[in-house]
Structure to design on (653 residues):
């Protein structure tokens, strides 16, 4: 069995990106987007409320304030991010907002924070999910948790390499099971103690006043803010929809807003409800169990559905769905992370190959990088959820703060009648104050406990991105100078087309988007082989990347641009009375498509020799090989294996 067959069994058969029905079959409606993207936010109820409640220490009566604040914050951030969906319907979320509204370098910081955020989404969701599973397993399982986490990340990598919608449909029953079981437990848990609710507010106010008498109101406020900030992981998934609007079904803005509404309602109810359960059922941490597990165990036992065995089975089902949802949330990292990398690649902050799609039309390079980085983070932290939450919250709230600051700037500059700019400005400002406040408290209070690592990682990624962009910018300027040199090449006087004769000697030029590069090859061949070639054919294979495939009309625009470039070369040859024609192809792998076109041409023109230009750098190293694809060498090898002659012409930059 060859490698391609094994790959097809694991990842599935290739998809045709040029068929209009392919994108429609992969675009997500609001409900599936809620599953694929909203699970990140909803799953945070497995660890966010617990970290908040644990930060209150013995003063658990303050949990009522945390439940209310959590629900309110979810809606404030969700409503503010609806504006991001409106303003940037092609996706990009926090990175695009910061880049366009604040500046490219703050956009870079936001993008780096988002990359780390999605890596940590995978890591913390997997770690928390394994913790949930371990809650009903013997304590002897604890040393094996890390290897279980490695297994689940590997499984998600394979699922996502198979394709977006396929992964979501597999995880859909888990998501619905979580929603159903937690809805029942929260509603029952609150109503079972409904008699305590009338006295809850007066008792909380009295206990708060007594605590203020002991430590002062400033002390109480500090305790509340620290607990509120420590639970910042609860809100971390809210930006996922705005980052991935390009994955949604048309009309994308409306679909995005509906998805955000589903997410906000479900997260506010679940996270706020769980904190309330902790308070009403007097939750206490137990060795080897999450706070959710110990609380749900007590609630299930009070239902009187059966004996201890049945109660244990029901608890196992609930925790299995919770762990399953956390694995669905980890999947969000594999959706959002590659999308951010793709947007940053479009701006040349990261290698351009992060825009390329695989035969399953997913950004394969991004998926692999996110998975491997998550594994590295898990091994470094030992899978500690408490440490991961600190790293996670700082990276997310950095992005939140920059994005909401950008929205404040936008509405302060665009005060047009009928846009409700003042209301939107106030909403953005409130969200900014909340997010910047949480970020500041986390950095100060948790700097020594992992906050420093977040700052170092984001800074290191940003410096690498600046270096990469500088290289791409210098290369682009060099190519532009070549284009300018050849732009002055005059067209000839012949107005009529000249058709190629298949029996004549034929020069086939594999060209890209640079007209200068194509003319450089054409004139070089004419100079070195004067009057030898009678036919001149031009081949262009466009790579269907994530941006070309991201929206309606993008593929057609790419087709028109490619056809226009080829037409320029053909017209240039015709004007000089040279027989010429062109061939255009599209695919997710440029090497495969070029090879296919060249084999087709060799059948029609048996006397063909193939030429292409390749950038040659004065100092060739591993970085230039990573940042620039080696397509010319790969095509040459493939054609030589087929017995076809190909010459690579150096173009020094």
């Amino acid at each position: 069995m060859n490698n391609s067959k094994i790959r097809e069994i694991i990842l599935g058969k290739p998809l045709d990106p040029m068929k209009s029905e392919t994108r429609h079959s992969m675009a997500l409606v609001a409900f599936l987007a809620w599953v694929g993207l909203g699970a990140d936010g909803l799953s945070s109820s497995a660890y966010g409320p617990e970290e908040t409640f644990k930060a209150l220490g013995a003063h658990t009566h303050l949990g009522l304030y945390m439940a209310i604040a959590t629900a309110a914050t979810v809606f404030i951030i969700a409503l503010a991010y609806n504006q991001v969906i409106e303003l940037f319907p092609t996706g990009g979320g926090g990175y695009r907002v910061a880049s366009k509204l604040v500046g490219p370098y703050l956009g870079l910081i936001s993008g780096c924070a988002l990359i780390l955020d999605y890596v940590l989404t995978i890591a913390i969701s997997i770690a928390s999910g394994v913790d949930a599973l371990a809650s009903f397993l013997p304590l002897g399982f604890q040393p094996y948790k890390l290897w279980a986490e490695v297994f689940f990340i590997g499984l998600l990598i394979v699922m996502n390499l198979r394709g977006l919608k396929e992964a979501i449909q597999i995880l859909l029953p888990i998501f619905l099971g979580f929603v159903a079981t937690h809805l029942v437990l929260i509603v029952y848990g609150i109503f079972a103690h409904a008699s305590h609710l009338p006295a809850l507010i007066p008792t909380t106010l009295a206990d708060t006043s007594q605590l203020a008498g002991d430590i002062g109101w400033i002390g109480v406020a500090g305790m509340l803010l620290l607990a509120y900030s420590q639970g910042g992981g609860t809100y971390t998934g809210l930006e996922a929809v705005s980052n991935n609007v390009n994955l949604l079904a048309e009309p994308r803005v409306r679909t995005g807003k509906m998805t955000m509404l589903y997410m906000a309602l479900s997260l506010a109810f679940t996270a706020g409800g769980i904190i309330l359960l902790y308070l009403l059922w007097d939750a206490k941490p137990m060795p080897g169990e999450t706070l959710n597990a110990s609380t749900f165990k007590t609630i299930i036992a009070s239902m009187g559905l059966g004996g201890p065995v049945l109660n244990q089975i029901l608890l196992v089902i609930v925790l299995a769905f919770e762990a399953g949802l956390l694995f669905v949330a980890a999947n969000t990292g594999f959706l959002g992370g590659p999308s951010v990398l793709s947007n940053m690649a479009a701006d040349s902050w990261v290698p351009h190959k992060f825009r390329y799609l695989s035969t399953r039309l997913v950004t394969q390079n991004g998926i692999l990088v996110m998975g491997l980085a998550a594994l590295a983070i898990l091994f470094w932290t030992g899978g500690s959820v408490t440490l991961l939450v600190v790293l996670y919250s700082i990276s997310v709230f950095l992005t939140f703060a920059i994005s909401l600051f950008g929205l404040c700037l936008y509405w302060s500059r665009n005060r047009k009648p009928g846009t409700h700019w003042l209301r939107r400005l106030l909403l953005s400002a409130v969200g900014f104050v909340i997010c910047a406040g949480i970020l500041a408290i986390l950095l100060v209070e948790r700097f020594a406990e992992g906050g420093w690592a977040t700052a170092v990682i984001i800074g290191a990624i940003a410096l690498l991105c600046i270096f990469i962009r500088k290289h791409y910018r210098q290369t682009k300027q060099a190519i532009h100078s070549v284009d300018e040199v050849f732009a002055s090449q005059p067209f000839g006087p012949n107005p009529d087309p000249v058709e190629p004769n298949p029996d004549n000697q034929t020069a086939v030029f594999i060209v890209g988007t640079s007209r200068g590069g194509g003319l450089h090859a054409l004139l070089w061949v004419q100079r070195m082989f004067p009057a030898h070639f009678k036919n001149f054919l031009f081949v262009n294979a466009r790579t269907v990347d994530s941006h070309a495939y991201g929206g309606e009309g993008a593929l057609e625009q790419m087709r028109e641009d490619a056809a226009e470039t080829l037409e320029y070369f053909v017209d240039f040859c015709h004007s000089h009375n040279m027989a010429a024609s062109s061939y255009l192809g599209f695919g997710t792998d440029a090497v495969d498509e070029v090879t296919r076109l060249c084999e087709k041409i060799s059948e029609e023109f048996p006397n063909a020799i193939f030429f292409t230009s390749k950038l040659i750098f004065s100092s060739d190293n591993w970085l230039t090989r990573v940042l620039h694809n080696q397509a010319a060498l790969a095509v040459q090898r493939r054609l030589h294996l087929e017995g076809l002659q190909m010459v690579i012409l150096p173009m020094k930059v």
